[in-house]
């Protein structure tokens, strides 16, 4: 599975580089060279200029120029005190230190570079000119640097005037080859040693190659930092046997990785994921790259109106879903901790048609929940819209010093690939959040309705095990229709519209008792500006015995207030109690959820509008 993803990345990279560039290095270098001004902090270049005539060099001076085409400078930085891949380097705080330790010191490594005799001779000539004019160059660098403002940064690089034209490092094969070779070192040098094989099969292109490398696979699908992770002999030098990759494929992988990280990197509720497309039919990646590029342009024009299932405004999944199934997608969730890169979850093989199902389920659920936006919620309370944030609210990053990241991602995985989700586990986590609201005096409305919506979404995808989905129901409640019905028919209609979740008399009785108890609490609030019956609800830790015991107590309280308008509702509840028998099969968390759901949907079951107007809570 992973190797297919790696192959897809290599083919994307190859497409980006261009097949005609495989024999040359210009286009390959385009993917290696870094932009020193990527973050806008280095807008200028100090160009140490030499005059070239008949192969000889002489010092000419220092030019200060605005940094425009960064590729001409061949910049590729290295961490720490190491010199960069070429003499081009960023000036840190101390210009002298940068000049000495980065720019000039780079030429000390010429002898150890794998260069031709002519190239090495050229670089030595340049080195001699620079070192013999070292003090003069430094003074001119300081003088030119003083023309910039205090906050402006710049790079030091090398230029050549030949026949009156200014040329840069990119114009000289010796520097291009050095950059290419220096950049390739990381494919086989790591942990203080080397690992490369000869005359071996490349695991990506499946061709026999003179040389293959150990560390060219992008992203840490596996590691080599422990002996047991290395195939054959536990020797670090044999690490290449795990995933041998030839130079061409290594560079293609690098280019593919760069494209994906720059263009297909999205946020997801505290995580980030890479979307990696993979062809199923055909081998022309240009078509898919053109499609993705078109999506990014379209997104810029319609960002605010896009339909999303994540929290990223740049999400393109709703556009991917409209494509045919000639490619699939991998979603690679990752996390960066300083320099460490960790893959948290890899979801593979997501077809556009699967994404279409996820979005269609979202639309159906939001349509069915429109009545709650209309009758129960208001603009200030929020609206019910489904995205994966609904799931995240029950599996937050941290809650009570416990992180739920792993469980959240596991459920996300199951939803994307279409595997069952444990309904009881979900309800258990929902009730933790709702009980916390309840005991701290916060409204339970949004968490309860979002929990109910999540269950409906999973039902639409047929991901709740042991839940019989009736494809023929599809009833969408309408306010006008519901309000025109007498109470018993209204209750019946509600249960019919949610039949999969109200498949027992115990659930129906519990739900309706929740409706009734909320009406009592509203009356208490109006009478006493307090809700003393709250304590009878045991912090929403409901069970069969408590639910059965509560009904007469609620009735007695309503009679005491002489405001028992709900005898018809009580009769319906009592009837379901009788039919439910003893020894309910529902868990306590389930009963608690149905009870609090009834409390929050009491608005749907008004018995007399005129009387209840006086019972509204503040």
TrEMBL record:
Transmembrane segments: none
Domain of life from the UniProt record: Archaea
The protein, known as: CRISPR-associated protein, Csh1 family
């Amino acid at each position: 599975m992973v190797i297919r993803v790696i192959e897809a990345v290599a083919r994307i990279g190859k497409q980006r580089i261009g097949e005609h560039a495989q024999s040359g290095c210009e286009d390959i270098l385009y993917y290696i060279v870094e932009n020193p001004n990527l973050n806008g902090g280095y807008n200028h270049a100090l160009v140490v200029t030499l005059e070239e005539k008949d192969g000889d060099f002489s010092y000419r001076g220092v030019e200060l120029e605005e940094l425009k085409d960064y590729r001409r400078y061949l910049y590729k930085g290295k961490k720490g005190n190491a010199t960069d891949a070429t003499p081009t380097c960023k000036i840190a705080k101390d210009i002298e230190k940068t000049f000495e330790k980065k720019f000039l010191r780079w030429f000390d490594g010429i002898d150890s570079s794998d260069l031709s005799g002519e190239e090495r001779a050229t670089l030595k000539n340049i080195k001699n000119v620079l070192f013999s004019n070292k003090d003069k160059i430094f003074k001119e660098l300081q003088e030119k640097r003083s023309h910039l403002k205090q906050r402006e940064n710049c790079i030091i690089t090398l230029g050549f005037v030949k026949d009156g034209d200014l040329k840069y490092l990119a114009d000289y094969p010796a520097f291009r080859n050095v950059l290419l070779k220096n950049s390739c070192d990381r494919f086989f040098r790591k942990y203080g040693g080397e690992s490369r094989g000869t005359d071996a099969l490349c695991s990506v292109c499946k061709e026999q190659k003179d040389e293959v490398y150990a560390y060219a696979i992008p992203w840490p699908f596996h590691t080599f930092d422990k002996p047991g992770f290395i195939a054959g002999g536990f020797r670090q030098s044999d690490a290449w046997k795990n995933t041998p990759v030839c130079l061409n494929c290594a560079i293609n992988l690098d280019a593919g990785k760069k494209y994906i990280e720059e263009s297909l990197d999205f946020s997801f509720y505290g995580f980030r994921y890479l979307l990696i497309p993979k062809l199923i039919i055909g081998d022309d990646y240009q078509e898919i790259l053109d499609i993705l590029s078109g999506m990014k342009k379209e997104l810029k024009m319609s960002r605010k109106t896009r339909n999303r299932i994540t929290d990223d405004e740049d999400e393109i999944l709703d556009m991917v879903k409209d494509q045919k199934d000639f490619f699939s997608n991998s979603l690679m969730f990752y996390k960066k901790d300083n320099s460490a890169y960790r893959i948290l979850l890899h979801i593979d093989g997501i077809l556009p048609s699967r994404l279409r199902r996820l979005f269609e389920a979202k639309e159906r659920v939001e349509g069915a929940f429109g009545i709650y936006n209309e009758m129960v919620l208001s603009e200030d309370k929020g609206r019910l819209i489904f995205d994966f944030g609904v799931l995240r609210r029950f599996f937050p990053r941290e809650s009570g010093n416990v992180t739920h990241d792993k469980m959240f991602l596991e459920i996300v995985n199951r939803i994307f690939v279409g595997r069952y989700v444990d309904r009881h586990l979900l309800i258990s986590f929902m009730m933790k959040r709702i009980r916390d609201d309840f005991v701290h005096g916060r409204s339970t409305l949004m968490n309860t309705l979002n929990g109910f919506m999540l269950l409906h979404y999973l039902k639409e995808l047929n991901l709740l095990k042991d839940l019989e989905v009736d494809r023929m129901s599809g009833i969408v409640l309408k306010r006008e229709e519901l309000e025109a019905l007498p109470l018993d028919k209204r209750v019946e209609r509600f249960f019919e519209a949610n039949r999969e979740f109200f498949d027992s008399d115990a659930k129906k009785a519990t739900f309706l008792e929740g409706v009734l108890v909320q009406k009592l609490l509203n009356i208490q609030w109006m009478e006493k500006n307090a809700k003393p019956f709250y304590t009878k609800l045991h912090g929403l830790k409901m069970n069969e015995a408590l639910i059965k015991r509560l009904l007469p107590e609620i009735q007695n309280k309503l009679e005491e207030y002489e405001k028992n308008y709900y005898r018809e509702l009580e009769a319906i509840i009592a009837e379901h109690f009788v039919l439910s028998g003893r020894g309910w099969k529902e868990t306590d968390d389930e009963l608690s959820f149905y009870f609090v759901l009834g409390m929050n949907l009491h608005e749907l079951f008004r018995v007399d509008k005129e009387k209840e107007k006086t019972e509204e809570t503040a």
